[in-house]
Amino acid sequence: MPHLDHVALADRLLPALAAAGALLLDHRRAGVEVEVKADGSPVTIADREAEALLLDALAAAAPGVPVLAEETSALAEPAADARRLFLVDALDGTREFLAGTDHFTINVALVEDGEPLFGVVLAPAQGRIFATLGARLAVEAPLAPGTAVSTFADLGWRRIATAEPDLAAPRILVSGSRQSSELERFLARARAASVRRLGSSIKFCLLASGEADVYPRFGPTSAWDTAAGHAVLLAAGGLVTTVDGRPLDYAGLAHPFVNPPFIAWGRATAAAALLPQRAPLRG
């Protein structure tokens, strides 16, 4: 896979993404048993079966490119040393999935030299799919469960872009299950017009589509949780930084593949106003 053709890759993965989304919803309707992983997070057969569909599709679409996927990460640690690799989370937001909300996603990203170059995020219960169809082309399309599709063109995608924020009243997204003193200080500083609590990588996509302005995350996340949404946001005109203002990247991934605290921004103007490097939030 020497040259990245965003459209061709997205189209090759689309049927598997649609199938994985339908599988997750079918499992939820039928009821699933929950296991608890060593890190205390939940996992179900739905996660594993959806991941298997995506791994098969990636092997066919990009043979030889290693994959680091959440449920098989312990088996694929050498992949983290690769210059180019896929990051996969077949069910991001398992808690939200189990709680019956629609705030869970399927994430597939391609990272090269630590930079997220390609990403696709499907929110099955919302019927929305987001993807990079070019280095500076982020799109959204409807994808209802059970829809038979073969290409993104079939879906009638539309280009999305971030919105210039009202710096006096930014729209902020936060994790539905995490609270911290850092987050409280950030929200107090930002004087948000609204604060929405949501699970999963859908938050990156809402920034990318101009529906929100800032997503601060001071609690733990893994690389496969963020890379796909990160790629979509970059292509839409946004950015993601660490809390001291450096670009977030995925270079030097090592077990347990945890990101540092970060903030996703719709526009650089928000970052300049709300996170001056002379006033870091951590301490």
General form: globular
Mean pLDDT: 90
CATH H level, superfamily name of the largest domain: Fructose-1,6-Bisphosphatase, subunit A, domain 1
Order of helices and strands: HEEHEEHEEEEHEEHEHEHEEH
* Amount of beta strand: 25-35%
Strand order of the largest sheet: 3-4-5-6-7-8-9
Remind me, CATH topology of the largest domain? Fructose-1,6-Bisphosphatase, Chain A, domain 1
Distance between the termini: 43 Å
Number of domains: 2
Rg over CA atoms: 18 Å
| Number of discrete helical segments | 8
* Helix/strand/pairing category: alpha+beta
State the CATH class of the largest domain: Alpha Beta
Which consecutive residue ranges, at least 5 long each, have pLDDT under 50? 278-283
The CATH level-2 architecture of the largest domain is identified as 2-Layer Sandwich
Largest sheet properties: 7 strands, mixed
Describe this structure as you would to a colleague.
With 283 residues, the protein is an alpha+beta fold. The chain folds into 2 domains: 155 residues, Fructose-1,6-Bisphosphatase, subunit A, domain 1 (Fructose-1,6-Bisphosphatase, Chain A, domain 1, 2-Layer Sandwich); 104 residues, D-Maltodextrin-Binding Protein, domain 2 (3-Layer(aba) Sandwich), CATH 3.40.190.80. 31% of the residues lie in helices and 25% in strands. The chain is built from 8 helices and 14 strands. Helix 1 packs antiparallel against helix 2. The C terminus is likely disordered.
